[in-house]
Structure to design on (91 residues):
């Protein structure tokens, strides 16, 4: 199984990080057809060939994604999209 992990430190408030994380989850739902489910400060993302989670704690946002065989063809695109979003919305 292919996948990736991205981490990014943040200094913004937890409420602002949660808002940014909600925006990323919504964008992934809209653009990639995944479902997002919140559990405290963690959002679990699942869809056809995609499972992952995004959490934020101790000043770090952590994104881990596992991709099935077909979805793995889009690993670099998905990784770039998530990284771009975090770089733009998380400080």
């Amino acid at each position: 199984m292919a996948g990736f992990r991205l981490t990014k430190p943040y200094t913004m408030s937890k409420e602002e990080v949660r808002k940014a994380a909600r925006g990323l989850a919504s964008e992934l739902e809209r653009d990639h057809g995944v479902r997002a489910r919140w559990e405290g400060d963690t959002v679990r993302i699942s869809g056809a060939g995609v499972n992952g989670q995004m959490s934020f704690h101790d000043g770090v946002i952590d994104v881990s994604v596992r991709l099935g065989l077909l979805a793995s063809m889009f690993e670099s695109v998905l990784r770039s999209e998530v990284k771009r979003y975090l770089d733009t919305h998380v400080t």
Notes: The longest strand covers residues 2-9.
